[in-house]
């Protein structure tokens, strides 16, 4: 159950925040004073506590300090809501244990944050974990934690047994102690997994150890562990690390599976090897829906190959196709795995860039353009004109509307002399 406590003397702000929390899936209780809030916190265990920075009986820093001292509130999310910025008092609140600080006037930011917390706290995982720990007590504690998260756990005391299981299993995460009884150590197990040629060799690995030694940590990262947790293990820390690694690994595997299916669906442009327009239409919706649902940034770029028509006229279409093929292969090597690239028309390439605002997308394309000037696909010099536009959530942009904005910026790049990147800015002149 997701429950929250709001501590605020203002009926207006208390009601406003309660509405946001209920919409995000929380059950909400409220208190008008810090003392009442602490009393309720002692009687109940809340997953989220929000307190005003102008309580009548407590400074926000004092409230945070006293709440953190209560049993079970060491890792609870604690937000301080401020009506007027006061750098000193807000800094004291953070030092006293506040998780984050929000302005009462920025409702949109607060709404996005609460939605993400709700999704994070309520989501159940599914998957298999290989767990190696020779302490029976610690093994029991961590198995309970992992199964509560929805994971299936295969637990072993010896690395030899775990290695046999790993070779015949399909795991989403490995958690192993480094110092183990038996002939094989945890370090040897990590080394064996990373030497595997199959995709199973890329499984995320969390190493645990009671020896918090810096050189040991560095050695483990060199061997290929993804994370390191020192003993004694903090449950909430391990829980979040497990969540991050399992979800990231599963997402990566889903993307690889999707990529394989794309080939069978013939969604690749036969000349460039990039996605074609049909593939762009098919999968762009996922990028846009996730950007809206999770409040993420997203940009679209339109890249036009300068003078491609003249290249075809001077050197022939076969040479032009050779240029496009080498250029397409080069592009795939110089973008992030999460980006989508598609050939829209004869000389136009479309980029969907999740997690990139306008400035970040512009920087990515400018770096690409700089590197492009140093190559000669099919033995020919090449330059591109690029327009970039960022998703406007208030305008409810779609692929079509964002493409039009990026296309306008690309046209401006052509007018500016080609071989440049131009950002689309709302109600402002287009600038290079």
Short note summarizing the structure:
The chain is an alpha/beta fold. It has helices spanning 11-23, 34-43, 60-68, 87-95, 107-122, 136-148, 159-168, 186-194, 214-223, 235-264, 277-294, 308-315, 317-333, 358-372, 399-415; strands spanning 3-7, 27-31, 48-52, 77-82, 100-103, 128-132, 152-156, 173-177, 205-209, 227-230, 298-305, 340-343, 348-354, 384-390, 421-423.
Written description of the protein model:
With 432 residues, the chain is α/β, with parallel strands linked by helices. It folds into three domains: 3-122, Rossmann fold (3-Layer(aba) Sandwich); 128-248, 3-Layer(aba) Sandwich (Rossmann fold); 265-423, Alpha-Beta Plaits (2-Layer Sandwich). It has 15 helices and 15 strands. The protein has helices at 11-23, 34-43, 60-68, 87-95, 107-122, 136-148, 159-168, 186-194, 214-223, 235-264, 277-294, 308-315, 317-333, 358-372, 399-415, and strands at 3-7, 27-31, 48-52, 77-82, 100-103, 128-132, 152-156, 173-177, 205-209, 227-230, 298-305, 340-343, 348-354, 384-390, 421-423. The strands form three sheets. The protein has a five-stranded parallel sheet, sandwiched between helices. A five-stranded parallel sheet has the order 7-6-8-9-10, sandwiched between helices. A five-stranded mixed sheet has the order 12-13-11-14-15, sandwiched between helices. Strand 12 (340-343) and strand 13 form a beta hairpin. Helix 7 packs parallel to helix 8 and helix 12 packs across helix 13 (317-333). The protein is flat, with a radius of gyration of 27 Å. The model has no long low-confidence stretch (mean pLDDT 90). Its EC number is 2.7.7.65. GO terms for molecular function: diguanylate cyclase activity. Keywords: Phosphoprotein. One of its GO terms (biological process) is cell adhesion involved in single-species biofilm formation. Residues 3-119, 128-246 form the Response regulatory domain.
